[in-house]
Amino acid sequence: MFFFISKLIGFFLIPSNLFVLLGLTGIMVSLAGWSRWGRRCMIASVLLLAICGWSPLGPAALSALEDRFPQPVIDRPVAGVILLGGAVDTHISSDRNVLAMNEAGERLTATVDLSRRYPDAKIFLSGGASHILGGNARMSESQVARQILVSLGLPPQRIEMEERSRNTCENGTESKAALQPKPGELWLLVTSASHMPRAVGCFRAAGFSVTPYPVDYRTRGTNDLWRVTKSMADGLASTDLAVHEWFGLLAYRAAGMTAEVFPAVH
């Protein structure tokens, strides 16, 4: 139930969706004769789109997430690398019969690099079907990711996976159940830098001690705080992603799925 509720609420909390809905509401209210309130809604819609699209607000909120966990210093054997779902497009992969990565594809290339640097490490993929509508049951995120990794030269016998998880906390519980990690083992967790705080919180709640290996940075750090975004589309994309992650952190904590609102390095 949490999965479906979070997906539905998440759609309406995406800023770009919310601002456009506000503008459309203003138009409908104006047509209904409430011109004063309609104008207010439309003005608010345009102002919010401009602020979140052109100001550094989105990159700043995203940078705070990305800077939470630094690149790790690896000075002992690596038991395995855990790659979370979210780097592939299962819809395009299914409908066009191709292997499609999305903007988070660096998760996959980083995993290939780690597999070469640590040839004895197990490669584990965690990700099932994370969509409500329009999904194809034949293709899970792990299935598509596995095929891409093999096409990039990773030996198929090194790859294990689970296809049950639908959200980040399920990634943690399902990964622990499948891998049964031993005390003292070093497991690298690969996911986007902005998603890492939520992922670490979920794995800690599952009792799985992992070492964050953040990739797929979308900001340049504090330097972006002094730059106007190059396009409204880029600014809104950063704002949408940041709000998605911050809302996820708060929602998971409120639901009792994690023990920390904003996990940090221990």
General description of the model:
- This protein has two domains: 2-66 and 231-254, no CATH class; 80-215, 3-Layer(aba) Sandwich (Rossmann fold), CATH 3.40.50.620.
- The two termini are 32 Å apart.
- With 266 residues, it is an alpha/beta fold.
- It has ten helices and five strands; from the N terminus they run H-H-H-H-E-H-H-E-H-E-H-E-H-E-H.
- The longest helix is centred in the C-terminal third of the chain and has 23 residues, at 232-254.
- The chain has a five-stranded parallel beta sheet, with helices on both faces.
Helix content: 40-55%
CATH fold assignment of the largest domain = Rossmann fold
Q: Poorly predicted ranges (pLDDT <50, ≥5 residues)? A: none
Strand order, largest beta sheet: 3-2-1-4-5
* Count of individual helical segments: 10
Which structural class do you get from the secondary structure elements? alpha/beta
Shape label? elongated
Tally the beta strands: 5
Question: Brief overview, please?
Answer:
This protein is of the alpha/beta class.
